[in-house]
Structure of ATP-dependent RNA helicase:
Amino acid sequence: MGSLPLLLKPSVALSGSSVDTDELSSTLDLLAVAPTGSGKTLAFLIPVINEIVQRRRTSDKNHDLEAVIIAPTKELASQIVNEGKKLSIGTGVKILGMKKGMKIIPSADTEEKQQSGDDEDDESVDGTTSASQPLTKTDILVTTPLIFLHALSLGSSDDHAPLPTVRTLVFDEADVLLDPLFREQTLGIWNSCINPGLRVTLWSATMGSNIETLASATIQARQEKLGLEKHSNLVRLVVGLKDSAIPNITHRLIYAATEPGKLIALRQLLRPTAKTTDGTEALRPPFLVFTQTIPRAIALHAELFI
C-alpha cells in the first residue's frame, strides 16, 4: 500500500527527491516488489479506479477501455475482478473479466454506431458490431495474455489492433508475465497500447534484475517507436529486502540428487516413517505441493497415493 502516494500524487510523493516532477503524473511507471498478502491488488486497483473517476468528472465520454490488467492465470484474474467490483461500487466504473468471444475492438463499419453510447444493457454490452458478437464496453478489463491478444488480432499473428484509449497497463505477477513462456504475448499487448500518456505498473513478490532491465528497455523502445520524448521515470518500490525469504515462514532446502531420490524425500517429508534426525518437527497436514506443470502434478499425485 506504500505505492498509493506514488500513483495518486507522484509529484507530491517525489517532491523531495532528485526525480524531475514536471509532468510526472502522466509519465510515472512503477515496478513494485512486495511479499504475497501485502495488499498489491488493492494498491494497483485504487489508483486505476480513482483516475477513471477523476477523468469522468471533466468528460461526457461513455465507457471506454481505459485500463487493462494482465494476470498469468484465470483464477488470479477472477480474484482481481471480484476485488475491483467491491472497490468500484457507487463510482460508475465498470470492471470485467475477459471471456472467450468478447469483442473489444469495433469493426470499421460499426464504429459510427458505437458513438451513440447506448447504455441500456446492464451486462456491460453496448450495441452490436455484427449479427453474432456484441461490442463489450467496460472501463477496466482484467485478462490473461493469450485470450486478450487473440481478441486484438487483425488476422495475422504479428498484426494487432491498437488500443489508443488505454491509459493504464497493469502487470500482476510481472516476473511470470515477462518470463519466456508469456513474454511474446505480454509484449504484444504492451506494444498495442499507443496512448502517449500510458502508465505501466509491474507487480510481483519477486523480481529478477533481468525482468527490470527488460521492462526499462521496453518502455524506452515504445517511446522511440511512438516518437515520444524519452524519459526514465520507472520508479522501483521494494517492500522488505528484495528477493529475500519471508521471515515468518520456515524454509528448508533438501538435496535429493535424483528424481527417485526426490520422490523418496517428499514421501518422508509428507508421511514420515521415522523421527527426524535434525530435531525439526514433522509437518502436519494439510499440505500444498507446487509443481512446474499440470502433467507433473498429476504424475506426482499418482506416485504419492498409490
Notes: Residues 108-131 have pLDDT under 50 and may be disordered.
